[in-house]
């Protein structure tokens, strides 16, 4: 690893350690603490620091790194809101009979899927392919609902390292699921 890479990595760790909680709090304020938008807060905070990682060479020379982080976080929150509103705008309103018929059909499809696929064994099979560290992270984040901050403290790594690990874990699990259904 070259000297510039080490400087960039140290700078990035410094950014994460110094600003992660502030950016998280800022995102929380932007959604006005509404519980239904807390996913936006987590995702936008993680994505802000992932974007910072991508732009690290630019940020090393940037005159106002903190401002860049806040602006990026705000833009990501706004983008999430826009996506949500676009989805809602394209939702189709149906009368009660059509909605009930679709729900019944959906339940029938779900029953058919459940009769073909044993979800418990599928989950067990997919999760058994994870190594011990990934299994622990999966359990802590998805089952125990630990926050990024709590995970960072538990694993004694930066919040950004945790977000990167969670991203990679999600991707790995998605690939396992895709491969499973592709083969079967």
UniProtKB/TrEMBL annotation:
Family membership noted in the UniProt record: Belongs to the sigma-70 factor family. ECF subfamily.
Where would you find the membrane-spanning parts of this chain?
none
Pfam families hit by this protein: Sigma70_r2
Q: Residue limits of the RNA polymerase sigma-70 region domain?
A: 17-83
Molecular function (Gene Ontology), one example: sigma factor activity
Tagged with keyword Transcription = yes
Source organism of this protein record: Desulfotruncus arcticus DSM 17038
Query: Which named protein is this?
Result: RNA polymerase sigma-70 factor, ECF subfamily
């Amino acid at each position: 690893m070259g000297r510039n890479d080490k400087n960039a990595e140290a700078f990035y760790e410094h950014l994460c350690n110094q600003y992660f909680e502030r950016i998280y709090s800022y995102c929380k304020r932007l959604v006005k603490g509404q519980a239904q938008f807390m996913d936006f807060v987590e995702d936008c905070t993680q994505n802000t620091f992932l974007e910072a990682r991508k732009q690290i060479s630019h940020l090393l020379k940037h005159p106002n790194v903190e401002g860049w982080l806040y602006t990026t976080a705000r833009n990501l929150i706004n983008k999430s809101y826009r996506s949500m509103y676009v989805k809602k705008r394209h939702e189709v309103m149906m009368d009660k009979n059509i909605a009930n018929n679709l729900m019944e059909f959906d339940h029938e499809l779900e029953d058919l899927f459940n009769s073909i696929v044993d979800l418990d064994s599928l989950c067990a099979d997919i999760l058994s392919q994870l190594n011990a560290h990934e299994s622990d992270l999966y359990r802590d984040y998805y089952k125990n609902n630990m926050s990024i901050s709590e995970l960072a403290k538990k694993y004694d790594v930066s919040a950004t390292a945790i977000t990167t690990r969670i991203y990679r874990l999600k991707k790995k699990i998605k690939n396992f699921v895709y491969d499973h259904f592709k083969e079967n």
